[in-house]
Amino acid sequence: xxxxxxxxxxxxxxxxxxxxxxxxxxxxxxxxxxxxxxxxxxxxxxxxxxxxxxxxxxxxxxxxxxxxxxxxxxxxxxxxxxxxxxxxxxxxxxxxxxxxxxxxxxxxxxxxxxxxxxxxxxxxxxxxxxxxxxxxxxxxxxxxxxx
Length: 147
Hints:
Aminopeptidase
């Protein structure tokens, strides 16, 4: 149910084409580049789920994940990015997308799933906690920018 008590009619489907990803471009941080979208969709261990409201053709949310494997740890899922269009927030869609990726990770034998969150992003933290995640409060991120 949404905040007005109406039943939500969301469906979540795996993205399989560049056109589907391009239709969700407004949800991403920047423009979708066809060659990058194709590479993501065809790479093993890369996953992108799109959420739709009823029969609407434009996605209203997405979650992406990448499996990472290490010789002494096995495979885990990195929740790479989550986005929900503004009018669809606070209706459980973000949680549903995270749970869909969680289900896939378990099906694929991952031993866990993790996500990086910007400091102070309480909304993201609440979403991930509501989907079963736990904040261990112990991470710092060091980055390299190759551009």
